[in-house]
Predict the structure.
Amino acid sequence: MDLLNALVAILNYVVIPATAYGAQLALGALGVTLIYGILRFSNFAHGDTMAFGTAVTIIVTWGLQAAGVSLGPLPTALLALPFGIAITAALMLATDRVIYRYYRKVHAAPVILVMVSVGVMFLMNGITRLLIGVDEIRFDDGARFLITAREWRDWTGLAEPLTLRSTQAITVVVAAVVVWALFWFLAKTRTGKSMRAFSDNEDLALLSGINPNRVVAVTWIIAAALATTAGVLYGLDKSFKAFNYFQLLLPVFAAAIVGGLGNPLGAIAGGFIIAFSEVGVTYAWKKVAGYLGYNADGLLQLLSTEYKFAVSFVILIIVLLFKPTGLFRGKSF
Amino acid sequence: MKKLLWASAAIALTAGGAFAEDIKMGISLGFTGPLESMSPMMAQGAELAFKEVSDSGKLLDGTTITPVRGDSTCVDAAAATATVERLITSEGVKGIVGGMCSGEAIASLTNVAIPNGVVMISPSATSPALSTLDTKGLFFRTAPSDARQGEVMTDIILEHGLKSVAVTYTNNDYGKGLADSFAEAFKAKGGTVTVVAAHEDGKADYSAEVGALAAAGGEALVIAGYVDQGGSGILRGALDSGAFETFVFPDGMIGETLEKNFGPEVNGSFGQMPSSEGEGKDKFVAMAKEAGFDGTAVYSGEAYDAAALMLLAMQAAGSTDPQVYKDKVLEIANGPGEKILPGELAKGLDLLKAGTAIDYDGATSVNFVNGRENAGTFREIEITDGKIETVKYR
């Protein structure tokens, strides 16, 4: 019984939240890594792209709700997501046309493109705030829980509660579908193959007749889709606040770099590594230890929760010191 | 000519500055930020007192008051300092109702108000640190110190039969002060505090914080935070994960947002906030209702009292100069003399003009201790059927 309680406590406070968070980070990191692999720069505007996409999705969600459309137990935002992606993709393509294309044409160094993306970040920052404001917004509707703490207790008789929010389950399912679709696209379709070729060797790809503008456009569209999906899932699971998405940039980048920039598989692994370390390191293990027969006086907490963000950085430093190309050998230009 | 000037100056002085003038009074509250849902009712409370005195025409023979609002943000000490700087140097206010939150109040007080010699009376800054700060007699507060709230909260929790609690606080002067003073009082009376952990405001996700609190355990969770900020996040996380079922809410957590966002989910949880009962409060609530706002809102009556105290002190000192009237505030607040309630400011002004002592009681039974702060009464509340219900006053 005690062993079960310990397991449930770990599941409830570490595994479930970290899995949902990891899936959100992984989607964000995939977008970053894709842009890095194909367009060859770190896109600092990615966090605010997530915020913009989510903001648009929220507005469409409100519209749908006002029109009386709903998905029953599922959040309406899932229905609004394609609209959010379409508008975000349009914005990304416009940004590329107006801003990035020039720097590609003059063959600007990657660091210049990074600085340009910082400028774009501030711009999108402003657009998002003009669009939806700075306040915290909750837009989840439908059923909130798959398993509630009380049901679980009545059902199992265990002392430890277990809850599973529907948004956590949706996050994992949607993330899995999106990742599968992305890998299928990159591996099987002609466009996907040309993107990989472009990423591996730009000159060779151009010589073999790949249209660079098409590759760039598709990359932006996919990045917009990934960013919007990640942002909407994060917002559904937690809440939407423009500033929080800006802060999300740190763990997202950490995930992408830990996994190896430019390597999609690495981005996913990185997302989960960062999420599980953030939650695991700041979790107080006292109760779990108690169930396992060790009664501690302290909380058995490695780091106080205020230092959550520091965890990403520590992992980042360790990886960069010992394996600069990341765990899954990404590109290092 | 010079003699004439001196003579008239001397007459003016003996007459006690009895010239009708138009003065400005500052209101520095967090109109944006974590307590933005509370500020409007507080500002309206202060403005009600200013208007009452202005309309009576009895302050220093017809001096009228123009209130000037400024945004102290509650969390950004630099912004609050800039606001108070503007109120004092460019608006030329003679006194300020504010600041709202302890950290910001301490910053604007020490950086601007004290160097410029302007009186600040805060209706809501409750950090124990403000009890001992050297303020040159320029600072008062109509809200009680959190040290007192910590004791009251201890009593309420013990009366509910709870012996061990976990405490989380918003990481600022208010939260830390309240959490520490509560933990100390609770332990002194034989209770167990399993953990005292900070949380940061403005984050999306509090599952890690909730996990740590849940691991520490306890029969209830004390949330010394803000209802429009991280406090709600912690509460949401604790409810969702089933970590705690009973919660204790100090003043920062009690507000409309709590009823609106949580309602029946927190049935049976309880808390307290500085408030008062009695004739003064009833009168203030009635006046507020007439003026079109909710006088039962947290710290609204305190704001009225803060404003009224400054004006009555001006009358007693015969001057609108903060350096002069600051010495009269305590006298007015603690009596002896005739009791003055809200709505009776004109009577108070008349009595003071005639040289009779008054004891301003106001909306919150004003009685200053430590030479600067209200001893305070607290309203104990409980959430019943999703509504905040008053249990009793203590």
